Amino acid sequence: MNDTIVKVLAFQTRDAVRSRWLLVYTAFFLAATEGTLRFAGGERAILTLTSVTIFVVPLVTLVLGTVYLYGAREFIELLLAQPVSRGKLFAGLYVGLTLPLAAAFTIGVALPFLAHSGGEPTLGGAVVSLIGAGIALTATFTGVAFVVALRAEDRLRGLGVAIGVWLLFSLVYDGGVLAVVAAFGDYPLERALVVLTFANPIDLARVLLLQQLDVSALMGYTGAVFQQLFGGAGTAAAWGALLCWVCAPVALGARAFRRKDF
Amino acid sequence: MIRAAALTKSFGATGVLRGLDLDLARGRITGLIGPNGSGKTTFIKILLGLTAADAGILSFDGEAVGRDVAYRARIGYMPQIARYPENLTVAELFALVKDVRNDDRPLDETLIAQFGLRDQFEKRFRTLSGGNKQKVNAALALLFRPDLLILDEPTAGLDPASSAILKDKIIAERDRGCTVLITSHIMAELDELCEDVVFLLDGRVRFAGSLSDIKHRTRQTTLERAVASMFIREVA
Prior knowledge:
Chain A has helices at 3-17, 20-39, 42-71, 73-80, 86-116, 124-151, 155-183, 190-198, 201-211, 220-230, 234-259. Chain A is mainly alpha-helical and 262 residues long. In chain A, helix 6 (124-151) packs antiparallel against helix 9.
């Protein structure tokens, strides 16, 4: 009965849509997109929005996701006491959390672009990529939120771990890459750096998005090497890797959910 | 109805259940008592499939509790804490649980009527009082005419009138043939409802028998005194 998944999903989506935080999140992206389109416009708008997206989407997804899951603990236990399999319940809960977050982001970015689209149809592809990458990051970090909330029994600790994961992927990681480059600059590091890019979904999303624009100088070290090595052909590989980054935490989360002692 | 044999469970280094043996007879009301940390909640969670035992056997109506989730369709569970997604209404929660259960049998809506919950149906959980949340909890547990009813501190937070309604309903369920397992810190309440008593201490059953049995054995007239005297003797 895959009905169960759909019913739990629909229930949870309704809960999320009515929450104030989701409204704030949507409003934030509406304002950010509208603002950059008005004051920067064109490619520069996409550039700014890329930075905002890869910074804000993982953070908000991780924090809202873990907070929601700790709050829903008793509710999840009540559902588990019904004749429902854990796999289906996990699927319903996961999609029910990802969908509203992804929709909020999509609406926030897409609406202003649609409203302004008259002038610059050439940006269409870049906007679609931006939204695609934002949705992929949402799906990835919702999965991470599940893993964190299921593994850490204590709510405060879980929230700390979630923010730590975000810091690691968005700030510490690039610092580490730079340190590696500074220390081993005399060696041919190109391949190693591409591997490092693929190992971080946030880096991957950034490189993927900026690659489509003519701004490789702003892509950071990994980004520059990435383009040098792959050119346009790397895009497909990067999308594939981003998809793997969605699947990995989800698989880990599902496993943790099936084995968890509630 | 329920049979546990040498059931063990530890969380990290602490053993919560240390070889629990228990038999619950069909159609009786059993009070599960014991100090905090004695394993009551863990036992209930294993029975519901929320937690997996490390070793031992737990069977429900002859079937081992494990992978198959179907047996839970026959259980009504009233958890101690009633917290639900706060932006949803009472009606939506009832609809979800009904959908998930997918049960064709007619529902038992006595408690919904007696608690006057219909007036609360369109309210969101955020605005619901603690007592009303507890009533929702009770009504949900009894909605599907369960064969086994598990109640964790059922009357905590209920006003006396609602508490009496719930107790009458528990007895009516028993008369229908339902097996009832109750945990409570209020011994007077168990004294009033239970026929059997199971006393847990340090993850083992220290006493299992009828209510009159425990009173007789400890030479006390109330369950509270009987449990107290048994506890003192065990600790000493």
